[in-house]
């Protein structure tokens, strides 16, 4: 029932409905990026101070990749935790600035070093280009861990929405030589099933921000062919097995078309013997963690993700 919507969410949805903003999926990807870049600063609060922020370029398999590196307040000078954060945006939009707030929260709340890659976006660079960049960033982070004061055994991966999809896939890849081993995967309303058949697509397909039409537009720009949709590297829920993946924190939102597949992925991991901590935010919508100016639960969700990560390491919350 919509009367369970968080009041801050209701306020933002009312503003959006009155503004008659053009849906992203009615324009080109280029125009969607322009509109998104104009809108996200309105939703995010004042940037938290961290010890340092640095942009750096590394060589990837297909060219240079820009990384943004955050050192959080309280992060150890050596053998500390490290986090690879993968931004959301449907594989089509989003950038280092759009998720800067979340990276700063993680850096401080987890007292860690965060690396966020500016991975290639679709449709100019379809699957698996973005995933390849993220895997290269993880390999760089593990290889250079000592330089960042990080223990390579304490590296986790995190992401929201499409970034959560990429993070979940890296966590499956890390079971083999395809990617370095991970200490945790922190997934915020992740996309785990690109078939888009979950019932939450019907229940919350319109009126709550991310729509069914928009999600199909994002997916169809990302995949090369229909065969990619059922590839586990696009739909990790469809993997033959998730056994051996890193412990997971999975956050879901109550009025989100991705809610059911996030819940299903948590259940699948548990069935395969993976430790999972789930957190459901019943009054929230997709993307609420990127709305920190208006929604206090945004930072709290990152705080809970950081606490889950610590618990996986066996340290006090």
Automatic annotation (TrEMBL):
One of its GO terms (molecular function) is hydrolase activity. Residues 83-289 form the Alpha/beta hydrolase fold-3 domain. The keyword Hydrolase applies. The active site is at 161. The keyword Cytoplasm does not apply. Keywords: Hydrolase, Plasmid. InterPro entries: AB_hydrolase_3, AB_hydrolase_fold, GDXG_lipolytic_enzyme, Lipase_GDXG_HIS_AS, Lipase_GDXG_put_SER_AS. Pfam families: Abhydrolase_3 (PF07859). Belongs to the 'GDXG' lipolytic enzyme family. This is Alpha/beta hydrolase. It comes from Rhizobium jaguaris.
């Amino acid at each position: 029932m919509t009367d369970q919507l968080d009041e801050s969410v209701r306020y933002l949805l009312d503003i959006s409905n009155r503004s008659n903003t053009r849906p992203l999926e009615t324009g080109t990807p280029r125009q969607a990026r322009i509109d998104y870049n104009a809108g996200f600063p309105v939703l995010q609060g004042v940037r938290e101070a961290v010890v340092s922020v640095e942009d750096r370029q590394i060589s990837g398999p297909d060219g240079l990749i820009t990384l943004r590196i955050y050192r959080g307040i309280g992060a150890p000078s050596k053998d500390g935790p490290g986090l690879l954060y993968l931004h959301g945006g449907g594989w089509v939009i989003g950038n280092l600035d759009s998720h800067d707030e979340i990276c700063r929260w993680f850096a401080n709340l987890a007292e860690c070093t965060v690396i966020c890659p500016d991975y290639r976006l679709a449709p100019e660079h379809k699957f698996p280009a973005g995933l390849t960049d993220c895997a290269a960033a993880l390999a760089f982070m593990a290889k250079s861990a000592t330089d960042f004061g990080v223990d390579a055994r304490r590296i986790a991966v995190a992401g929201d929405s499409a970034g959560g999809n990429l993070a979940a896939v890296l966590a499956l890849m890390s079971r083999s030589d395809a990617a370095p081993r991970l200490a945790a995967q922190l997934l915020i309303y992740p996309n785990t099933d690109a078939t888009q058949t979950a019932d939450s697509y019907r229940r919350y397909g319109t009126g709550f921000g991310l729509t069914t039409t928009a999600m199909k537009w994002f997916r169809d720009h990302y995949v090369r062919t229909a065969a990619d949709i059922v590839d586990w590297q696009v739909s990790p829920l469809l993997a033959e097995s998730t056994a051996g993946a890193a412990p997971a924190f999975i956050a879901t939102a109550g009025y989100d078309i991705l809610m059911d597949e996030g819940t299903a992925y948590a259940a699948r991991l548990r069935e395969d013997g993976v430790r999972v901590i789930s957190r459901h935010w019943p009054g929230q919508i997709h993307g609420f963690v990127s709305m920190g100016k208006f929604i206090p639960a945004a930072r709290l969700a990152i705080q809970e993700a950081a606490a889950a990560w610590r618990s996986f390491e066996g340290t006090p919350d």
